[in-house]
Amino acid sequence: MQRVRVRAEARREIDSAFAWYLNNSPSAADGFLDAVDKALSHVAKAPEGYPVVRGQLRRV
Question: In the chain, where are the structural domains located?
Answer without folding.
Answer: 27-60
